[in-house]
Write a structure and sequence with these properties.
This protein has about 130 residues and is of the alpha+beta class. The protein is about 40% helix and about 25% strand.
Length: about 130
C-alpha cells in the first residue's frame, strides 16, 4: 500500500493547477484511509481532494469527510480494478465512517494513477 499511495502522491504532484482544480471539483472530499497489513499494523493516509489536492501519510490538516478502513490487500485490489468499492463494502472488506457517498468515489481516485508496476509491488511495509 505504501508504494501505491506514494505513486498516487507522485501523480498528483505532476498535475497542473488546472488539473488539480478539476479533480478537486469532481471529487470534493477528504479521504482518510486506515490500512491494516498482515501483521495487523495500521497506517493512516489522507487524500485531500477538497482543499489542496494532496496525498500524504498521517492525518490531514482538515477533518476527513470519510474515513475508510480496509486491509492492504483490499486497497491493492481496489486500485488494480480486481475489486470495486461497492462489493468491498457489501462483503465487509471495507468499512466507512462519515460520508458514504463520497466513499463511492474512491475507486476513481485510486485509478488516477493506474500503474501496473505499482500494483505488483503494492504490498509493502506500512
Amino acid at each position: 500500500a505504501s508504494l501505491l499511495i506514494s505513486s498516487l502522491h507522485d501523480a498528483f504532484s505532476t498535475y497542473s493547477a488546472t488539473e488539480k482544480q478539476a479533480l478537486i471539483k469532481k471529487t470534493n472530499g477528504i479521504f482518510e484511509l486506515k490500512v491494516t497489513n498482515d501483521a495487523k499494523e495500521t497506517a493512516t493516509w489522507t487524500i485531500d481532494l477538497k482543499k489542496e489536492g494532496t496525498v500524504h501519510k498521517g492525518n490531514g490538516k482538515y477533518k476527513a469527510d470519510v474515513t475508510i478502513s480496509l486491509s492492504d490487500d483490499t486497497l491493492t485490489d481496489l486500485a488494480s480494478g480486481k475489486l470495486n468499492g461497492q462489493k468491498a463494502f457489501m462483503t465487509g472488506k471495507l468499512k466507512t465512517k462519515g460520508n458514504i457517498m463520497l466513499a463511492t468515489k474512491l475507486d476513481g481516485v485510486l485509478k488516477e494513477d493506474a500503474d501496473e508496476d505499482v500494483f505488483k509491488g503494492a504490498k509493502a511495509k506500512l
